[in-house]
C-alpha cells in the first residue's frame, strides 16, 4: 500500500497548483515596497507634482506645492485605489470558484484563469505606454479577479488529490506559498533590485510570471479523482487518476469512499446563497463563519501587507489563533509607547514581526478551513461563496481606508484594530466550537442544542429547505 508514500506525480501536481498561491502572495505584497517611486510617477502623470516644485517647496519658496508626491490628495486617492482594487476583483470572482472548478475540472479551471494573470501582468508591465495610474489600477483589478479564483481553486485541488495521511500538511502549502510570494516580492522590490524609477513596471509585471510556468506544467497533472467520480460519475478515469497520484496500490477503498460521498451528495440538494441567508437553520454556523473571516481581515494584517515597506523580509511561522490576538494587542501597546521612547521603536518592530508570523500559522488559513467543517454538502458551496465575498470585501475596506485612518490617528492607528480584536476574541471564545476530530454531525449538534431552545420550528424549516426546488 502506498497511502503513506509521496509519489513524484503528486509532488509535481501540488507544486504546480501552489504556483497560483505564490502568484497570489506576490501580487499581495508587490505593491508595497515601491510605493514612493510609483507615487512620483502618478504625480507626474496627473501633473500635480514635479521634482523641481518639490525642491522649491522644501526650501520654503513655494508653499502651494507638495514636497512629496504622495502628499497630494489626488495621488493618495489613486494610490489607495491601486491597492484596494485588487480586493474588488477578488470579491467579485469569489462567487465563481465553484462554477469554474466544476465547468471543465480543477486542472483545466486553473489553466483557463491563467489568461487573466498574464493579461494583468502585461497591463502593469507596460504601464508607461499610457497613463500609469490607469494601467496599474486596471492590471491590479484583473489580477485581483484572478487571485479570487485561484485562492479557491488551489486549496480545492490539493485537498482532493492529497492522501489522508498528508492532507493537512499539503493543505498548509497554499498558505506557505502565499507567504513565500510576499517575501519574494519584498526582496526584489528593494530599490537596488527592481523597486526603482527604471524597473518598477517590470516588478509589477512579474506578477503574471508564475502563471506562465504553471500553464506549462498543468498538462502533466492528473485531474482530481473526486471531481471525476463524484461530479462526473467517471469511475474508471477516477481509478486511473488515483493510480497516477498514489502509485501501484489497490484504489478500491478510496473509490468506495467516493461512492458513498457521491450518494450522500446526490441525496442532499444544494442550498442557494439566498436560501442560506434567509434560513434560520444554518444562521449560527453562517454567523460564525463570517465572523471568522471578519476577524482575519480586521486584525489589521492587510494594513501591514499593503502599506509597510519591509515587514515581510523576516516573516516566520508559529503559534495558533489566540496567540495572534494577544500579540496584536501587545504590538499595539508597544506602538503607542514607541512614540514616547526612541528605543521602543525596535521593540515595536519585533512585535510586528511576531504579529505577522503568528498570523500566518493561525487566522491566515483557519477561516478558510473552518467554513468547510461547519457546513455539509448541501449548503457548503453557498457558505464558501459568502465567506469568500465577506473576506475580500473586508480586504477592500482595509486597503481603501487605511491611509486615511492612519492620517487621522497617526501612531494610534492600531488601537482601532486592538478594540476590534478584543471583540472578536470574546466572540471566538464563546461561539466557535472545537472541530478537531469531530464529524459534521457532531459539529452540527453543538449548534442544534442552542437553536432548538430559541426556535422549536427549525426542524420543519430544514425539511422545507431540503425539499425546496429553489435549494
State the gist of this model.
This protein is mostly helical and 471 residues long. It has helices at residues 8-30, 35-45, 51-58, 73-93, 97-103, 106-125, 132-161, 167-171, 173-188, 200-205, 209-217, 225-231, 235-246, 252-267, 273-278, 283-297, 301-307, 321-338, 344-361, 366-374, 380-409, 413-431, 440-454, 458-467.
Description:
This is Solute carrier family 2, facilitated glucose transporter member 5. Belongs to the major facilitator superfamily. Sugar transporter (TC 2.A.1.1) family. Glucose transporter subfamily. It is found in: Cell membrane, Sarcolemma; Cell membrane. The chain crosses the membrane at residues 76-99, 111-131, 137-158, 170-194, 286-309, 321-343, 350-370, 382-402, 409-430. The protein is mainly alpha-helical and 471 residues long. It is built from 24 helices and no strands. The protein has helices at 8-30, 35-45, 51-58, 73-93, 97-103, 106-125, 132-161, 167-171, 173-188, 200-205, 209-217, 225-231, 235-246, 252-267, 273-278, 283-297, 301-307, 321-338, 344-361, 366-374, 380-409, 413-431, 440-454, 458-467. The radius of gyration is 24 Å and the shape is globular.
Amino acid at each position: 500500500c502506498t497511502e503513506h508514500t509521496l509519489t513524484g506525480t503528486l509532488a509535481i501536481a501540488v507544486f504546480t497548483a501552489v504556483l497560483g498561491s505564490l502568484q497570489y502572495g506576490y501580487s499581495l505584497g508587490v505593491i508595497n515596497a515601491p510605493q514612493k517611486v510609483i507615487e512620483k510617477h502618478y504625480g507626474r502623470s496627473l501633473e500635480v507634482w514635479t521634482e523641481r516644485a518639490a525642491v522649491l517647496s522644501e526650501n520654503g519658496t513655494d508653499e502651494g506645492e507638495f514636497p512629496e508626491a504622495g502628499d497630494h490628495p489626488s495621488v493618495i486617492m489613486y494610490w489607495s485605489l491601486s491597492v484596494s482594487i485588487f480586493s474588488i476583483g477578488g470579491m467579485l470572482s469569489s462567487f465563481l470558484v465553484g462554477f469554474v472548478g466544476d465547468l471543465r475540472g480543477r486542472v483545466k479551471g486553473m489553466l483557463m484563469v491563467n489568461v487573466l494573470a498574464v493579461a494583468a501582468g502585461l497591463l502593469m508591465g507596460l504601464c508607461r505606454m499610457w497613463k500609469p495610474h490607469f494601467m496599474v489600477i486596471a492590471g491590479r483589478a484583473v489580477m485581483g479577479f484572478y487571485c479570487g479564483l485561484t485562492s479557491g481553486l488551489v486549496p480545492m485541488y490539493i485537498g482532493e488529490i492529497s492522501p489522508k495521511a498528508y492532507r493537512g500538511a499539503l493543505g498548509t502549502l497554499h498558505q506557505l506559498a502565499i507567504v513565500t510570494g510576499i517575501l519574494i516580492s519584498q526582496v526584489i522590490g528593494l530599490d537596488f533590485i527592481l523597486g526603482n524609477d527604471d524597473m518598477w513596471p517590470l516588478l509589477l509585471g512579474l506578477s503574471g510570471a508564475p502563471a506562465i510556468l504553471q500553464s506549462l506544467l498543468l498538462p502533466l497533472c492528473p485531474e482530481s479523482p473526486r471531481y471525476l467520480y463524484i461530479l462526473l460519475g467517471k469511475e474508471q478515469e477516477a481509478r486511473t487518476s488515483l493510480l497516477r497520484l498514489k502509485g501501484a496500490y489497490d484504489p478500491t477503498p478510496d473509490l468506495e469512499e467516493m461512492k458513498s460521498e457521491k450518494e450522500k451528495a446526490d441525496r442532499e440538494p444544494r442550498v442557494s446563497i439566498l436560501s442560506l441567508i434567509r434560513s434560520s437553520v444554518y444562521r449560527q454556523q453562517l454567523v460564525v463563519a463570517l465572523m471568522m473571516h471578519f476577524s482575519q481581515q480586521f486584525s489589521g494584517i492587510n494594513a501591514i501587507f499593503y502599506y509597510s515597506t519591509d515587514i515581510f523580509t523576516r516573516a516566520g511561522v508559529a503559534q495558533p489563533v489566540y496567540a495572534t490576538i494577544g500579540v496584536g494587542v501587545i504590538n499595539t501597546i508597544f506602538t503607542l509607547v514607541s512614540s514616547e521612547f526612541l528605543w521602543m521603536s525596535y521593540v515595536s518592530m519585533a512585535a510586528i514581526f511576531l504579529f505577522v508570523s503568528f498570523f500566518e500559522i493561525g487566522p491566515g488559513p483557519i477561516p478558510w478551513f473552518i467554513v468547510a467543517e461547519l457546513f455539509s454538502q448541501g449548503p457548503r458551496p453557498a457558505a464558501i461563496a459568502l465567506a469568500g465575498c465577506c473576506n475580500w470585501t473586508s480586504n477592500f475596506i482595509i486597503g481603501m481606508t487605511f491611509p486615511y485612518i492612519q492620517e487621522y490617528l497617526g501612531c494610534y492607528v492600531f488601537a482601532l484594530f486592538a478594540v476590534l480584536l478584543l471583540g472578536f476574541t470574546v466572540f471566538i471564545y464563546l461561539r466557535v466550537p472545537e472541530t478537531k476530530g469531530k464529524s459534521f454531525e457532531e459539529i452540527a449538534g453543538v449548534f442544534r442544542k442552542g437553536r432548538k431552545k430559541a426556535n422549536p420550528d427549525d426542524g420543519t424549516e430544514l425539511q422545507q429547505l431540503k425539499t425546496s426546488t429553489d435549494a
